[in-house]
């Protein structure tokens, strides 16, 4: 028998197997090396470094390479030539949590269009938890149903106090204080990152320093942070800042002063001393920071009457809370609930919310409904009753003199040049100051204000001044925070900051006025807030960081949102990534809800 060499035998055996198995199958194609590759952009990495040209590669929600040139395949390649690449903007102070309840609002497009990829919510003492639901419920809903941007939850002192004590103006009993501390601890255990206060709002304004201190001490072992809308932003700003510093030092926590400013003309310049207090505290080791929105006017809805409400109503204030409580005391629980539902259309009555309402004592439930009705009822010139009472008082010499004295005192404080007519029947008056309108009509400031009020005009008081805004902005411990809400698109007239804060700050203060550098502006809304919140993997363009990324067209920045027409999206963000997913592509929303809840 002829022998076949072993090498040839092995080859023949292999061939026989291959023939039996059919033709060779191609190898499965390997996936792209990167999920997203951003090429040719000018990178502002979140530090104070000048922009540098680099490519940025993203894989599995992280930045995996930053280099002058990156080769490799990608599921999506973005050409950023002529554009700037920055970390996603972090809004250190928002009230978007109520708006996020609604699935139609969950994308938060007004914020994505500004380049915001993360928002800290539950500010000024108001949080969804524990009034409507628990922190764990909110976290679970955002996680399971999706949310457009990252969110981080604070627990609001006002809601904790309201749950335990209602709106009572007194110190808590030892038992009530322990119950409040237990609620704060529960929130921290479930994923909250700190405590917020709103010490000019009910019921927060009823709390003394020692109460706040005891509650802030609860968040200290968790490494939590204390955000405070301080007790006074006017003539007692220094005392209010001192209280915040004392609480931070006493509890041993980081503290952030919310929307740092001073209001009313008579107090302008006081921020210089307040900044000195903060910097002295920082010099002795306290971790104190602040956030700021870059506008001269405040309030979620910035419109204001030209005649202050206390002057307008005088002693004939109409139905107050006590009157309403008496009027509602005869209603059945079902009727009260129906009334409450009508007065809170933007707060869905979830099961935890209903359980909370059903568990309230009768007097507390009546008080809650009365408060909602009082806040929601028609006021001022639009109220026939209040208007008639005001006109009657104007015809009475003593009452008329008191009205005019009150109006004059108000404008001595505000300054008629700082009250801007926003809505008027005579459209030629819109955008002009009260001072200019009075001069044109050859009337006194007081007479002009009263006439405009009776004609249904609305104005916006410019309570802050540009020198204060710019002085605060230059501090390296002041981050950007919109103080904005997440409005239902087209409903009401919210502050433009809900649509424009971040791009407005870059365009107005870095590019146009050059108050701060472009790198400073970007740092104030990226790495600085990330540092304040202790998120080492956010706020930077760096390898290993979370892939929250803005691709920004500086020349294309537009912020059309205005006082009279706020519901307009900003422009200039060409592409936006949240946790590595493209959520804005060519400025258009992709439909991706890529956010997550960020913890401590």
Description:
The chain is of the alpha/beta class and 600 residues long. The protein contains 22 helices and 21 strands. The strands form 4 sheets. Strands 1, 2, 3, 4, 5, 18, 19, 20 and 21 form a 9-stranded mixed sheet that branches. Strands 6-8-9-10-11-12-13-16 form an 8-stranded parallel sheet, sandwiched between helices. Strands 7-17 form a two-stranded parallel ribbon. Helix 11 (321-328) crosses helix 14 (362-376). 46% of the residues are buried.
The number of helical elements comes to: 22
User: How confident overall, as mean pLDDT?
Assistant: 90
Instruction: Give unreliable regions as ranges.
Output: 1-22
DSSP helix fraction: 25-40%
**Proportion of β residues?**
15-25%
Number of strands: 21
Output the structural class: alpha/beta
What is the straight-line distance between the termini?
A: 80 Å
Secondary structure blueprint with pairings:
Blueprint: H1 6-21, E1 34-43, E2 52-59, E3 62-67, E4 74-79, E5 84-87, E6 89-91, E7 94-95, H2 109-112, E8 116-121, H3 128-131, H4 135-145, E9 150-156, H5 157-165, H6 174-190, E10 194-198, H7 209-219, E11 225-229, H8 237-251, E12 254-257, H9 271-283, E13 288-292, H10 309-313, H11 321-328, H12 333-343, H13 351-359, H14 362-376, H15 384-394, H16 397-414, E14 419-423, H17 434-441, H18 445-454, E15 458-461, H19 466-473, E16 478-480, E17 484-485, H20 497-512, H21 518-524, H22 527-533, E18 549-552, E19 573-578, E20 581-585, E21 588-589
Parallel strand pairs: 1-4, 1-5, 6-8, 7-17, 8-9, 9-10, 10-11, 11-12, 12-13, 13-16
Antiparallel strand pairs: 1-2, 2-3, 5-18, 14-15, 18-19, 19-20, 20-21
């Amino acid at each position: 028998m002829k022998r076949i060499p072993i090498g040839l035998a092995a080859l023949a055996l292999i061939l026989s197997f291959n023939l039996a198995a059919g033709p060779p199958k191609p190898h499965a194609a390997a996936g792209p090396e990167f999920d997203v590759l951003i090429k040719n952009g000018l990178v502002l990495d979140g530090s104070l470094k000048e922009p540098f040209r680099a490519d940025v590669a993203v894989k599995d929600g992280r930045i995996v390479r930053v280099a002058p040139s990156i080769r490799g395949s990608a599921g999506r390649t973005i050409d950023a030539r002529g554009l700037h690449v920055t970390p996603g903007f972090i809004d250190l102070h928002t009230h978007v949590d109520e708006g996020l309840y609604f699935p139609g609002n969950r994308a938060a497009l007004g914020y994505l269009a500004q380049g915001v990829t993360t928002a800290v919510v539950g500010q000024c003492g108001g949080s969804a938890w524990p009034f409507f639901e628990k922190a764990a419920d909110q976290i679970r809903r955002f996680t399971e149903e999706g949310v457009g941007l990252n969110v981080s939850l604070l627990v609001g002192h006002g809601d904790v106090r309201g749950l335990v004590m209602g709106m009572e103006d007194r110190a808590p009993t030892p038992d009530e204080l322990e119950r409040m501390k237990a609620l704060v601890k529960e929130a921290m255990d479930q994923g909250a990152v700190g405590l917020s206060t709103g010490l000019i709002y009910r019921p927060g304004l009823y709390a003394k320093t020692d109460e706040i201190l005891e509650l802030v001490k609860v968040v200290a072992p968790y490494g939590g942070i204390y955000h405070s809308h301080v007790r006074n932003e006017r003539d007692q700003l220094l005392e209010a800042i001192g209280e915040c510093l004392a609480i931070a030092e006493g509890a041993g926590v980081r503290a952030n002063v919310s929307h740092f400013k001073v209001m009313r003309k008579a107090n302008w310049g006081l921020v210089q001393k307040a900044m000195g207090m903060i910097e002295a505290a920082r010099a002795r080791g306290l971790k104190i920071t602040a956030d700021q929105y870059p506008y001269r006017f405040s309030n979620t809805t910035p419109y204001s009457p030209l005649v202050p409400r206390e002057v307008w109503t005088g002693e004939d204030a109409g139905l107050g809370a006590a009157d309403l409580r008496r009027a509602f005391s005869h209603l059945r629980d079902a009727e009260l609930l129906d009334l409450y539902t009508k007065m809170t259309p933007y707060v869905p009555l979830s099961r935890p919310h209903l359980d909370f309402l059903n568990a309230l004592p009768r007097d507390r439930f009546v008080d809650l409904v009365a408060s909602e009705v009082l806040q929601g009822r028609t006021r001022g010139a639009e109220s026939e009753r209040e208007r008639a009472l005001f006109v009657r008082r104007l015809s009475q010499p003593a009452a008329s003199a008191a009205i005019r004295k009150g109006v004059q005192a108000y404008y001595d404080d505000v300054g008629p040049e700082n009250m801007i007519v926003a809505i008027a029947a005579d459209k030629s008056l819109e955008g002009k100051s009260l001072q200019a309108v009075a001069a044109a009509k050859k009337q006194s400031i007081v007479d002009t204000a009263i006439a405009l009020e009776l004609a249904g005009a609305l104005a916006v008081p410019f309570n802050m001044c540009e020198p204060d805004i710019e002085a605060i902005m230059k501090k390296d411990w002041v981050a950007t925070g919109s103080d904005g809400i997440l409005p239902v698109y087209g409903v009401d007239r919210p502050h433009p900051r809900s649509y424009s804060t971040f791009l407005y700050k870059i365009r107005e203060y870095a590019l146009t006025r050059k108050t701060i550098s472009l790198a400073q502006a970007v740092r104030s809304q990226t790495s600085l807030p990330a540092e304040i919140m202790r998120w080492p993997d956010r706020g930077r363009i760096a390898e290993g960081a979370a892939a929250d990324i803005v691709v920004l067209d500086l020349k294309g920045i537009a912020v059309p949102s205005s006082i009279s027409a706020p519901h307009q999206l900003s422009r200039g963000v060409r592409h936006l990534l949240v946790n590595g997913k493209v959520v804005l592509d060519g400025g258009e929303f992709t439909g991706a809800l890529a956010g997550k809840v960020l913890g401590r």
